[in-house]
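User: Sequence recovery, please. Input:
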């Protein structure tokens, strides 16, 4: 059946109830701009020779299923019910900029073909229901929802977007608000995904997704979501940028970590463990932080806070110790040497027990030497008797004293150099302990 677009327009404007058109060929462009259609319009298995335009129009509902048309424009249109394009091929742009759709947007199994531009342009789209692009949805060209309001969520499970170049944006969700965004379970693209400033009430998931861009696979700078699932089908080839984003919960797996991560400013309340043993989990997470590149303190502090919140203080201290070690590599020579000393003696204050170990080892060494090599008394017959252990401690502890150091001296023979060395080491060790512990208290 062949239909003239002018005749069809008149029929739609005069109709009420439901208009069903099946297996028809519309022989030219169908222009319905600014019109008010009081019927439910359904096209099934139809062929359009020209584009359909509904700019600023209003209709109860529109269904174009298992059909083919060279483009559909509906900017600022108001569709009271559902817009259904299931199984339809659109050889051109689908334009829904600032449209208002009272029901759902169904694109299951649809194909949008506009490789030189935007296949789905839905900036500012206001939905009352969800956007469903499941069951084999394909787009050749950009899919864009910048600033869209999607309270029913965006469902793109198993969808495919191709743009032909890894530097090109395949999906633009900057500033969108949604209940959930699911680019998952077989979702794939060869371009970049952008969700800058997106606000998602529940789940943002890429579980089982394949991101093949080798430049910037995923950008979620400033995004917010209740949960983030980064358990990709395979490791993304490009950078995943989560800077200044916040997620209540994050799930991921080391097997699919991208080669480069942007983590500076990222905050979270719970981070899924990567290994059954906490020690192995910390090792993995430290490797995770190093994928950020360069030294940035905030990701270490956030990870340490996560472990402290879980009651894992030892793991938190280990993370903060590695933060200091990473920072040390960025300092000048003198600062690096002092950092190595703090690390070796007290672990930058996060391992104060190291000072006790050094004290025990040096005390044992001094005691062993001074038992067989005695100093001479300052005044014969006066002062306390010599005691090798107490004398060693008196040399190592620079504050106070046990009376041994002032009562005995070396006459040029014996291990005088060892005694001097213990005095110097004692001062250095004490200074390092005070500096390390003070730094820890100030930071925590």
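Assistant: Recovered sequence (444 residues):
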């Amino acid at each position: 059946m062949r239909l003239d677009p002018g005749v069809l327009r008149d029929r739609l404007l005069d109709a009420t109830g439901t208009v069903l058109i099946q297996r028809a060929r519309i022989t030219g462009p169908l222009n319905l701009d600014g019109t008010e259609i009081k019927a439910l319009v359904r096209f099934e298995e139809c062929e359009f020779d020209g584009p359909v335009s509904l700019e600023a129009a209003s209709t109860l509902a529109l269904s174009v299923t298992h059909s083919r048309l060279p483009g559909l424009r509906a900017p600022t249109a108001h569709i009271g019910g559902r817009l259904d394009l299931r199984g339809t091929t659109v050889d051109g742009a689908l334009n829904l900029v600032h449209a208002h759709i009272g029901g759902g947007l169904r694109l299951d199994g649809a194909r949008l073909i506009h490789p030189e531009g935007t296949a789905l342009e839905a900036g500012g789209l206001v939905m009352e229901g969800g956007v469903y692009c499941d069951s084999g949805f394909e787009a050749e060209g950009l899919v864009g929802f910048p600033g869209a309001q999607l309270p029913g969520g965006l469902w793109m499970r198993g969808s495919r977007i191709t743009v032909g170049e890894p530097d090109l944006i395949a999906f633009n969700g900057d500033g969108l608000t949604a209940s959930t965004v699911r680019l998952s379970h077989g979702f794939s693209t060869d371009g970049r995904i952008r969700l800058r400033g997106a606000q998602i009430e529940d789940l943002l998931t890429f579980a089982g997704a394949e991101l093949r861009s080798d430049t910037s696979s995923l950008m979620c700078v400033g995004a917010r979501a209740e949960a983030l699932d980064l358990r990709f089908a395979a490791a993304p080839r490009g950078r995943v940028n989560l800077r200044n984003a916040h997620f209540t919960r994050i799930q991921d797996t080391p097997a699919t970590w991208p080669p480069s991560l942007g983590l500076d400013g990222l905050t979270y309340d719970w981070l899924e463990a990567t290994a059954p043993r906490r020690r192995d989990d910390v090792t993995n997470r430290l490797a995770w932080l190093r994928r950020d590149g360069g030294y940035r303190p905030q990701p270490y502090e956030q990870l340490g806070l996560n472990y402290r919140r879980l009651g894992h203080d030892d793991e938190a201290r280990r993370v903060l110790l590695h933060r200091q070690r990473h920072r040390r590599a960025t300092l000048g020579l003198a600062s690096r040497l002092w950092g190595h000393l703090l690390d070796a003696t007290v672990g930058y204050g996060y391992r104060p027990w190291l000072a006790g170990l050094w004290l025990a080892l040096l005390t044992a060494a001094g005691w062993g030497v001074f038992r067989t090599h005695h100093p001479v008394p300052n005044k014969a017959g006066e002062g306390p008797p010599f005691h090798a252990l107490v004398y060693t401690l008196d040399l190592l502890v620079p504050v106070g004293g046990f009376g041994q150091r002032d009562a005995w001296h070396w006459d040029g023979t014996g291990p005088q150099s060892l005694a001097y060395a213990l005095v110097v080491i004692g001062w250095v060790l004490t200074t390092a302990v005070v500096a390390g512990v003070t730094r820890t208290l100030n930071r925590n």
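The mean pLDDT is 90.
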